[in-house]
Amino acid sequence: MTSDLLAPLDLAFWNMETDRHPMHLGALGIFGAHSPTAGAHAADLLAARAAAVPGLRLRIRDLWQPLAFGGAARETDPRFDPLDHVRLHAPADDFHAAAGRLMQRPLERGRPPWEAHVLPGADGVSFAVLFKFHHALADGLRALKLAAGILDPVGLPERAPRVVEPPRGPLPDARRLPARVPGLVRGVLTDMGRALDIGASLARSTLGMRPCAALTAEPSGTRRVAGVVLDIDEVHRVRKSAGGTVNDVLIAVVAGALRRWLDERGDGSEGVAPRALIPVSRRRPHAAQPQGNRLSGYLIRLPVHESDPLGRLRTVRTAMVRNKDAGPDRGAGAVALLADHVPALAHRLGGPLVGQAARLWFDILVTSVPLPGFGLRLGGQELTEVYPLAPLAPGQALAVAISTYRGRVHYGLVADARAVPDLERLARAVSAEVATLLSVCDR
Fold first, then answer.
1. Distances (CA, A) of 294 to 30, 202, 291
2. Cα 310 to Cα 290: distance, rounded to the nearest angstrom
3. Sign of CA pseudo-dihedral 328, 334, 336, 340
4. Where in 316-369 does DSSP place strands (E)?
5. Where, if anywhere, are coiled coils annotated (predicted)?
6. Strands 377-378 and 381-389
7. How far apart are the first and last CA of the chain?
8. Which residues, in sequence order, are bridge partners of residue 415?
9. Each residue of 381-424: pLDDT tens digit?
10. What proportions of the chain, in percent to the nearest 5, are helix, strand and coil?
11. Is 363 in contact with 275 (CB distance < 8 Å)?
């Protein structure tokens, strides 16, 4: 049975999980339905197709061998049964409410850590599928590839094969090692300098910070999910008028929505500038098998305290430019890179502590998940909405994931249900913030 070791960051995700803080990401897709039985048919298709996707057969096994003591590896599960992973539920009136209850359930660690929950709509003209993938099995891009493998096939032009040039010159041997030592030493020193820089930046990021009580929570193990849909053309109108990138606008919308939400619930937004972690993929383009997580991040202060909507956007834009100029390998947001320098056993023993320390690093996650521009289908039924759902870090009450699909922006909000019982109010605030930005830009 072949297996491959988990990368250090994957191992960290695997070990920081607890019953009250599952480390899976998700996506809630809503499909049209031509008949009340479309959901049941979709569940049958997902189960039948899952067996043919190798990545869905992978389980994660802990290792105790001398050379990988405390590590873990992905390997094919010889007892894989798709029916253990694809589940058909009773009709649902509210897909987001049902998704919240399902997101709070940890994945079973003894078998491939993914699930697909099919929710027929009580209206008979729609159904939803909630995909769950453990973060140690897949990041957002990998999860998309796995899910796409069990949706309807899409006819796309095949990419021309890449031409791999043979290595030039003789292969290195032991006699060449002395000549390589200076380069190896420089690499070690560079890594040490980068680690020190990240640590110092993280320490500076905590100075003068006013904690936002609404974004912190003692673990309750409960989850609530909400979704918001925006027109991408409206986002582009704001971008063209005020400057910046689409991503800058979408992040600024989160800051403005948080301000509205805090003021409406009576917590107040004065002086509040929570640290937002903006994940950045470090995956090489066109990687053949994107197995492990390759993530860094940018850390910015969300200008929740700023009263001017355009002022909030300018602040976000400036912070993002500064982060991009420094690059994803520097600054407090790059803490995930330090996982590469931690031994496997330390990940095993310190995983829960690392998870609890997330609140010292950032206050809220705001991540973008790439989606294809073409339409997706399941059993011939069109995917009309898709809400990405991010894991919730220990000690934190809210995470925001954003995807653009077929001309619309989808915000997926995940919260601790006890800490944020009014998540729908925050969802309405997202829509209201976009309307405000449009009115200001149209003046």
1. 29, 20, 9
2. 38
3. positive
4. 364-368
5. none
6. antiparallel
7. 65
8. 224, 398
9. 999 999 999 999 888 899 999 999 999 999 999 999 999 999 99
10. 40, 25, 35
11. yes
